[in-house]
Amino acid sequence: MGSSVHLEIITRLKETFNEQITVESGTPSLLYLRIDAPLVRTLAEYVALQLEGRFITCVATDLRKEEGTFRLLHLFSLDKAKTFLGIKTDVNPSTAVIDSITPVIPGANWAERELKDMIGITAQGHPDLRRLILADDWPEEAYPLRKDFPFDYKPASVSGVAPGLKSPPASTTVLPLGSFHAQKEITTYLNLFVYGEKVVDADYRGFYNHRGLEKMGESAFTYHHIPFIAERICACCGFSHSTCYCQAIESAAHLEIPPRAKYIRTLLLEIERLYSHSLWLASLCNMEGFASLFLRCCSLQQDVLDLAQFLTGNRIIFDMNIIGGIQKDIPKDAQDRLPKLIDRIEGELKFAIEALKGEFLTFSQLKGVSTLPPTDVRRLCTTGIIARASGITVDARVNHPYAAYESLGFKPITRDEGDNFARVSLRLDEMVQSLTLMRESLEKMPEGEINLKVEEIPPHTDSISAVESPRGETVHYILTGENNRPLRWKIKAAPFSNLQVLPIMFRGTNIADARISINSIDPCFSCTEH
Amino acid sequence: MSSSDSLPSSSISSTPHLAPVKKAIACYHANIGACNGCDLEVCNLFSLSLLKKLPLEITLVRTVKNADVLLVTGSLSRPLVKRIKELKEMLTANKTIIAVGACAIDGGLWRKSYPIIGGIDKMLPVNYYLPGCPPAPDAILFCLESALVSKKKQFSPIIYKEK
Amino acid sequence: MLKLHLISELKEAFINLKDKKVEAPRPIKPPFPLPPLYKKMVLYEKKCIGCGACALNCPAQCIGVSDNKKYRVVEFQLTSCIYCGLCAEVCPVTAISFVPGNELPSPSKEHLHHELRIKLKRCEHCREIIGTTKVILKTVKDLFAPLTTRELEWVGLCSTCRRKLQSDVLIRQFTK
After folding, report:
1. Using CB atoms, which residue from C32, C59, C85 is nearest to A229?
2. Is residue A238 a contact partner of residue A245, using CB atoms and an 8 Å limit?
3. Nearest residue of A to residue B33 by CA position?
4. Which pLDDT belongs to residue A389?
C-alpha cells in the first residue's frame, strides 16, 4: 500500500508537471504535493479526471504567526490505490484570493463557500458565493477561524447582510418546507420551486445549528477532552466522529492500538449503524402512512438501545473512546448472552422488511422516483448509500481500511437503479449485513488489553482519517500543535456533500413525493453544521 | 356528559354509562439547536408511551396552542432568536416550560462559543430544569409527573454528604 | 465510634427530609436485566483536598479553582455537566463519585451550584501561598519513607525560601 503505488502516481504527475510540483510524503497512506497558487486549478483538474481522484474537502489554516501565509489544502481520495492525496499551496494573506475549482469539480461548491465565510479566502470564478454558515446578522469582516478572533467573542447584530434565497424561475410558485423540518425535529428552511404538480428546482438555507466546534477545538479544549466533545456533534453518528478523531491522533503519534480495542470499536460502530437505520425506517413508515409497522419499528429501536446499554452502560452516547483505545471493557458474559439478543433483533427486522416489501405503497411512491444517474453522483462527489445505489462502489471500510474490517472480510453491496426504491432496499440490506458483522466480530474477539498509555503527541504533524458513518464517509484532518491542543481540526461530515444533491434529485418529482425523497437520502443536520 | 342528560326514552339503542374523560398531557417539543441526543430521548419516551402502559398519559401535539407543556432541547443559537420571538407570542401564561438537557439550561458544553447565546431562559421563563446529557426517558417522565401531577417545589439534584 | 457514625447518619436523614430529596423510580422495565445508568453525582465535602485535578480533566469545564486571601474556593457549576465520569476517575481521595440512578429535576439553577472552601497554607517566611493544608498533609502521609525532623522543618516553606535557607546553611558550614 505504500511506496510502490506512490511511485507510480508520482511518475505520472512528473511527466505532465515537471518542475512545478514538489512531493512530500507523510504517513504510508498520505501523499502531499506542493504547488504555487496560480496552478492549483490545472492540477486539480488533472487529479480529478486523469487520476480518477474523488474530491473530499478544502482545509484552510491561518499560519500567519508561524510562516506568514494562509495554508490551503485540497484533499482528494484515490480509491483504487487506497491512498489520500493533498495539494498544498500558500495564499497571500493581504489579498486572500484563489482560483475556484468549482467549474471543474461541482462537488466543491459548498466547500468554497465555507472558505469565504470562515477564513475570508475568496474563490474567483465561483458561480454563487452567498453566505452559507454564519448567521443572518453576523457582521461582514469577522472571520472566526483566524487566529486573532477570540473563540468567545460575540459581536453585535448587524442588519442588511442576510443572504437572500434564489428568485424563482418564471411561472413557478414557491413552496416553503420548514422551518421545523419535515423529517426530524430539526430546523432547516427549504424552498421548492413548483410548476403545476412537479418540482422544478430547490434552494436551501440551513445551518441553524452551527456551534463553532472547530474553533473551540483549537482554543478551549485539549487533546484528551475532544473524544467526548466529538461524540456530541450528533447523537446518531457520534461514535463515528469520535473514532475518526482518535484514529487521526493515533496515526500522528504512530501508535498501534491493541487488537481487542479494534474489535470492540467495530462492534460499537455497527450497533450505531443499526440504531441510525432503524430510526430512519420508523420515519419512513410514518411518512408512508403505515402506522402499525411504525410501532413495530419503534419497538425495534428500543431493543437496540437496550443492547447498547448492556454493552456500554450508556444509551445513545457511549463515552467509550479515548486516544489509545477503549476506556472500559464490555461485560464478561457478553459472549454468551449477546447472540440471543441479536437473533431477536434479526427476527423483528426480517418481519419489518417482509411487511414493507409486500405493500403496494412501497412501489408506487418509490420506484422510478427521484432518479440520480451515476454521472451526477461522480460530479458531485457524494459518498455513502446515495453513491452505492447508483452503481458506484465507494465505501471507506474498503477504500481506507480501519478497525477490524479487513480481518472480517467485509464486502460492500451495490445496486444499479438510483431511484428511491434502490436507496431504501440498500439500507435494509445493510441493516441485515450489520447484524452479521456484529456476530462475527463477537466470535473472533481476542483477549488482551484494551488501551495504550499515550505519552506525548509530536507537534506540527499532519494526519487524516476516514470512517464510514451511517450516512457516508466522514473525514477528520488534524494538524497537531503545542500547548496540548491541535492547531487545526477539520471535520468533514458525510451529509455535507450529500445535501448538495437535493436540487438535482428533485427535478421531475411530484410535491407529494418530495418528503420521501428527502427521507431517502437521510440528512443529518447536526453533523453538517457543527 | 353524564347519562342523566336528556335522551328520549323511546330511543332504539340505549347509550351506556359514559365514564368521565380525562385529558392526556399534551406536549410540544421544540429543538433550538441541539445535537439530537435529547430529542431522541424525548421521541423514545413518546414511542414507549405507545408501546407500554406508563403511569402517566402523554401525547405529542404539533402546535403550541394545543399544548400544556413545552419541552425545549438544545442551546439557543443566533439564527433562531427570531423564531423564538414568534413562538413566544403564541404562549399563554398557564403553560409549563421544561428545559431538558444540559444545553437548554445554560448552553452546556458550548456556552462560551461564538454563535451560541446561552440557555433558553434568556428568552422564555422556565419552570423546571432537568440536567443530563442526555437524560434518560425515566427522568423526563419523572420531571413531567412532578411538574404537573404532584407539583413538588423543592428538590436537590446532587446529594452531598457530610462525611 | 458507633455513636458518631449514627449521629452523622441522622444528620444526613434530617437534611434529606428537609430538602425533600427523592429517588426517581423506574417505571419502564426492560425485557432482561440491564446494568443501571450511573448518572447521579455524590460530593463528599469534607474529603476534598483542593488539588484541582478534576478541573483540569473536565471536558465541559464546569469546575473552577481560585484562591482567596484565606481559602481556596472550588466551584462546581453543574448546569453543564455531561456525566462522563472523568473527574471521579482522577480524584485522589474519591471525593466525587457517581452512583446508580437518574438525574433529578429542580425548579431553580441554584441547586446545581456548589462551592467548597479549603484552608490555604502560607510560607512561614515570606507569606506566599504554597498550597492547601490538606494537600500538604496528604503528600507527607503518602511519601514512601517517613521524613526526618530536619526535613519536616522545611515542609512549611515555599521553594525559594527553602533554597535560600539551605544555601545559608551551606555557606555557614564552609566559612566556619
Report:
1. C59
2. no
3. A209
4. 92
Smallest Cα distance from B62 to chain C, Å: 25
Q: Look at residues A281, A472, A93 and name the one whose alpha carbon lies nearest to residue B47.
A: A281
The amino acid that residue C153 corresponds to is: E
CATH architecture type of domain C36-174:
2-Layer Sandwich (3.30)
CB contact under 8 A, C82 and A306: no
Is beta strand C129-132 parallel, antiparallel or unpaired with respect to C113-122?
A: antiparallel
Cell of B92: 399563554
Chain C residues lying within 8 Å of A315, measured CB to CB: 37
CATH number of B25-147: 1.20.1530.20, 3.40.50.12280, 1.10.10.10, 3.90.1150.10?
Answer: 3.40.50.12280
Nearest by CB to residue C19, choosing from B133, B147, B154, is B154
* Residue ranges per structural domain of chain B: 25-147
The CATH fold assigned to A3-164 is Beta Polymerase; domain 2 (3.30.460)
A422 three-state secondary structure: helix
Instruction: Quote the CA–CA distance of A382 and A249 in Å, as a whole number.
Output: 26
Q: Spell out the domain ranges in chain A.
A: 3-164, 213-528
**Is a pLDDT exceeding 60 seen at residue A1?**
no
For residue A224, the chain C residues in CB contact (below 8 A) are 57
For residue B78 the three cell numbers come to: 443566533
Crossing angle (nearest 10°) for helices A514-521 and A420-443: 30
Question: Which CATH number is A213-528's, of 1.10.10.10, 3.90.220.20, 3.30.360.10, 1.10.645.10?
Answer: 1.10.645.10
Measured between CA atoms, the residue of chain A closest to residue C38 is: A313
**C82 closest CB neighbour out of B54, B133, B154:** B133
What pLDDT, in 10s, does the model give residues A412-468?
999 998 888 899 999 999 999 999 999 999 999 999 999 998 988 999 988 999 999
Cross-chain residue pair A135–B77, CB shorter than 8 Å: yes
Kindly report, residue by residue over A307-355, the tens digit of the pLDDT.
999 999 899 999 999 999 999 999 988 888 888 889 989 999 999 888 8
ipTM: 0.88
